[in-house]
Amino acid sequence: METTSIWLRDDAPPTRPSPLTRERIVDAAVVLLDRDGVTGLTMRRLAQALGVTATALYWHVKVKEDVLDLAFDHIFDEVPLPDPTPDWRADVRALIRAWRDVMLRHPWSPGLAGRPVPGPRVLTRTEYLQAALTRGGLADRDLAVTTRLLANYVIGAALTESTYHRSADPGARADTRRHITVNAAAYPVLTASGHLDADRWDSDELFGRGLDTILGAAG
After folding, report:
1. Which DSSP string corresponds to 165-216?
2. Once rounded to an integer, what is the mean pLDDT over residues 50-59?
3. CATH H superfamily, domain 81-217
4. Predicted local distance difference test score (pLDDT) of residue 103
5. pTM of the model
6. Angle CA(103)–CA(106)–CA(107) in degrees, nearest 5?
7. Whether the Cβ atoms of residue 14 and residue 58 lie closer than 8 Å to each other
8. According to the model, what pLDDT value does residue 170 have?
9. Mean pLDDT across the stretch 80-104?
10. Same CATH topology for 1-78 and 81-217?
């Protein structure tokens, strides 16, 4: 049975010359995804952006899922892989922060992070992550748990932040904060802690401190 994942298929190259390439398709797809999101990407719109027919796309990709897999993996080229240092926590911190930055630049991407078969760029960065954690003394189940914890943390943070930034009502968070403080008797801890107070807690700072908490418990 043939797998449906583009990463596990051995697709034959197109049998006839074409100015269209898989690289051009992916570049155009990322532009459309950044603008319109996953639901706004269709093979017809992608073909129009490339100035070709939809049929021409199918010489290079079989279905929209192929395009999503390729585009998601493609943006991970933007996550640098620095040379490993003696400070494994610093290496992990740099990788995870860059991962979050890329997902925020491409707000459609956190929702695709659970793709069943990750591509080579994603796997390479996961290899870097686990190699750093291994240098910190993690192995076996502890390594698996910490890898998943870090991945879920950065994906969840990026998903929450990108959803908030795309909100049709940018003042909703401030309104919710006012609702909390007006009803301080019902939410005394939330009021005191500054929950959803953008003026009190910066998202970058909170993300960084959360990351430090995870890494402090590891190793």
Report:
1. HT-S-TTHHHHHHHHHHHTTTT-HHHHHHTTT-TTTS-HHHHHHHHHHHHHH
2. 90
3. Tetracycline Repressor, domain 2 (1.10.357.10)
4. 97
5. 0.89
6. 80
7. no
8. 65
9. 96
10. no
What percentage of the chain carries pLDDT values higher than 90? 71
Asked if 78 and 102 count as a contact pair (C-beta separation under 8 A), the reply is yes
Q: DSSP E strands: which ranges in 79-171? A: none
Q: Which two tokens stand for residue 162?
A: 């990108």
CA within 13 Å, CB half, 45? 16
**What architecture is domain 1-78?**
Orthogonal Bundle (1.10)
Span 122-131, mean pLDDT? 97
Cβ neighbours of residue 69 closer than 8 Å, sequence gap 6 or more = 5, 6, 7, 115, 117, 119
Is the pLDDT at 6 greater than 50, yes or no? yes
**Is pLDDT larger for residue 16 or for residue 104?**
104
Measuring CA to CA, which residue among 174, 155, 46 is closest to residue 103?
155
List the domain boundaries for the chain. Answer: 1-78, 81-217
Angle, helices 140-165 vs 120-135, to 10°: value is 130
Six token digits for residue 60: 């290079």
Rounded Cα distance, 66 and 69, in Å: 5
CB–CB of 43/28 below 8 Å? no
User: What does the pLDDT average to over 133-162?
Assistant: 95
Query: Whole-angstrom Cα distance, residue 32 to residue 41?
Result: 6
